[in-house]
Design brief:
70% of the residues lie in helices and 2% in strands. The chain has 678 residues and is mainly α. The chain has a two-stranded parallel sheet. The longest helix has 48 residues. This is Protein ROOT HAIR DEFECTIVE 3.
Length: 678
């Protein structure tokens, strides 16, 4: 198709040793295979769809077996020979006669055919010398490649590379390759030079392709070793306290130099392999690792400073909220500013070694400031949820303690109304402090509004009335505070009103108990008779008083009797015994009367003999009386807290009086014998 214009050629297929299978069955199979071959043959674009019949006449014939049917075989061969002898006759083997060249033009036709063959390299058949050189050089090259793959030195080198980097890899591999290339040159020296050189290049290329995976593995080991070395050196450098950025630069330069040296040692003379891609990958890995470590270190520094800020702010802020006075938020602002500035200074110093741009540093510092503010805000919201408990604690502290922080004793002289008002004002002030966040120093009217609405009681009278509705406008009937932004709101006005109502209900019992304790104290300590009774006693007992003045001995006896009775009164704590009722008091006094008399007599006797009375008996007796008093159940409706305060006060005063009375008795008893002796 390339040399000539389309013309038919006869393809005669001769089947030897025909069997019993009919030729009609064999011929279609053979033609089908021929058609497949034709379809697979590459054709010029102009003849791409040309059928096989345009170029070939396909014929199939069969010959009998020469061994079995020799005569028939010879007859069929003679007939076939005649078809070749008369090929150009009608029905002969020759195809059409369109491309027949006359004998006079044969020389020119042959020259043209030869020119086309020379121009078309696919049709150019090599010389015999070239063909022999091609075959032999290829055989030699294949043999050297096979021996290279089985070489012990190469196998040992390949196995060593699988374990890790190998020193002197390039020199050792170059020596192995030189050995087999030299052997190829010696054996192929007498063959065609062009073929020999071409096959040598092919051998060298195949050999390099064969050893390149091992070289690539070695580069991978070098990259991994350099990368691990970078991580170790960076960690050690950071432990020494060096700056992060400077450490990264130093370690990167060291590891890249180490990798370059390894690549130079692994290079072979026969190839100029480029390790730049592996080097770039190593550099990317180092940059990624440095970025990861940088993020971890920065996160650790940020977390550490945030933790320090939390510890520095949470406790003090909570303490300031517990105080809850008018300077609370000012103190919190000063605390926040002081701790934030200190943390920012330390943080800036800590990240100086990272050598970040100023914009990133400013962003991180701003985030740290925001975190500090959020700590205070979070703590404020947390404390706002416990404001009712704080208010009750504040009320209890102010109500039950005086200005010196001592427990208050309800003796009847205290103004409970004023104390209650002060305690509620302190609690309401705490509520006003917790109502909104005041970190921006913006003035507001939360406290004045709460006091005017909940404490003064004048707001309702002064509120304007809506004529259409007829109800007063409640300033706390709102979900927002004036001059307070929504994000700074902690407790809404409506919630404040509800909390105040609940607070008053839960503290009302404490006020009631204080009033009850005050009334009980007045009753228990009012032992004096009425004034008219005192006047009657003075008039009716005037004669007896004159009698006592005339006879001082009676007066002395009465005074001693008074001291003894007073001592018994104090020792037995009669006032406390009768406080719980008449019957329990009588029973308690009757059980302690005789032991108390014996105790007093024993003391007087010991005092008269000059011995010091034991001090342990009185506290034990007092402790016994107190334990009996506390074991007696209190009457219903009495307050346990104020009553205990009153009892402790009475006990202390009675103890003092008891001591003074006993001392007077002792002095008087010692003076009587002296008077008698004189």
């Amino acid at each position: 198709m390339r040399l000539f214009s389309p013309r038919k050629t006869t393809l005669l297929f001769v089947i030897r040793d025909k069997t019993k299978t009919p030729l009609e069955y064999l011929e279609p199979i053979l033609r089908e295979d021929i058609q497949k071959i034709w379809d697979a043959v590459p054709k010029p674009q102009t003849l791409k769809n040309t059928p096989l019949s345009e170029f070939f006449n396909v014929e199939v014939t069969a010959l009998s077996s020469y061994e079995e049917k020799e005569g028939q075989f010879k007859e069929q061969v003679a007939e076939l020979r005649q078809r070749f002898f008369h090929s150009i006759s009608p029905g002969g083997l020759a195809g059409d006669r369109q491309g027949v060249v006359p004998a006079s033009g044969f020389s020119f036709s042959a020259q043209q055919i030869w020119r086309v063959i020379k121009e078309n390299k696919d049709l150019d058949l090599p010389a015999h010398k070239v063909m022999v050189a091609t075959v032999r050089c290829e055989e030699i090259a294949n043999d050297k490649l096979r021996r290279l793959s089985a070489d012990e030195g190469w196998l040992a080198l390949e196995e060593a590379v699988q374990e890790g980097p190998v020193s002197g890899f390039g020199k050792r591999l170059s020596s192995v390759l030189d050995t087999y290339l030299s052997e190829y040159d010696m054996e192929a020296v007498y063959f065609d030079e062009g073929v020999r050189n071409a096959k040598r290049k092919q051998l060298e290329s195949k050999a390099l392709d064969f050893v390149y995976p091992t070289y690539s593995t070695l580069l991978g080991h070098l990259r991994s070793k350099a990368f691990e070395s970078f991580k170790i050196q960076l960690e050690q450098s950071l432990k020494k306290g060096e700056g992060f950025a400077a450490s990264v630069r130093t370690c990167t330069q060291s590891c890249m130099l180490e990798f370059d040296r390894g690549c130079a040692d692994a290079a072979i003379r026969q190839a100029k392999w480029d390790a730049s891609k592996v080097r770039e990958k190593l550099r990317r890995d180092i940059d990624t690792e440095a970025s990861s470590v940088r993020s971890v270190k920065l996160s650790a520094i940020i977390a550490d400073h945030e933790k320090n800020l939390t510890e520095a702010l949470s406790g003090p802020v909570e303490s300031l909220f517990e105080v809850g006075d008018e300077d609370t938020w000012a103190s919190i602002r000063r605390l926040l500013k002081r701790e934030t500035e200190a943390a920012v200074l330390k943080f800036s110093t800590a990240i100086a070694g990272f050598e970040m741009d100023q914009a990133a540093v400013d962003t991180m510092v701003q985030n740290l400031r925001s975190y500090a503010r959020n700590v205070v805000v979070k703590k404020a919201r947390e404390e706002a949820g416990k404001v009712l408990i704080r208010m009750k604690d504040r009320f209890s502290t102010v109500f039950n303690h005086d200005n010196d922080s001592l427990p208050r004793v309800w003796t009847g002289k205290e103004d409970i109304r004023t104390i209650t008002k002060d305690a509620r004002a302190a609690s309401l002030r705490l509520l006003s402090v917790m109502a909104a966040i005041r970190l921006d120093e913006k003035p507001d009217k939360v406290e004045s509004l709460l006091f005017s609405s909940l404490m003064d009681g004048t707001a309702a009278a002064s509120l304007p009335r809506d004529r259409s509705i007829g109800d007063s406008v409640d300033p706390l009937a709102s979900s927002m505070w004036e001059e307070v932004s929504p994000q700074d709101k902690l407790i809404t006005p409506v919630q404040c009103k509800s909390l105040w109502r609940q607070f008053k209900a839960e503290t009302e019992y404490t006020v009631t108990q204080a009033i009850s304790a005050q009334e009980a104290h007045k009753k228990n300590n009012n032992w004096m008779p009425p004034p008219w009774a005192i006047l009657a006693m003075a008039v009716l007992g005037f004669n007896e008083f004159i009698l006592l003045l005339k006879n001082p001995l009676y007066l002395m006896i009465l005074f001693v009797a008074y001291l003894l009775l007073r001592a018994l009164w104090v020792q037995m704590d009669i006032a406390a015994e009768f406080r719980h009722g008449a019957l329990p008091g009588i029973l308690s006094i009757s059980s302690k009367f005789l032991p108390t008399i014996m105790n007093l007599i024993r003391r007087l006797a010991e005092e008269a003999q000059g011995q010091r009375p034991p001090e342990a008996s009185r506290p034990q007796q007092s402790l016994a009386s107190q334990s009996f008093r506390y074991q007696t159940p209190p009457p219903a409706g009495s307050s346990s807290i104020p009553e205990s305060s009153v009892s402790s006060n009475i006990s202390s005063s009675e103890s003092e009086f008891e001591s003074s009375g006993l001392n007077l008795i002792r002095r008087r008893s010692t003076n009587i014998p002296e008077a008698e002796s004189s």
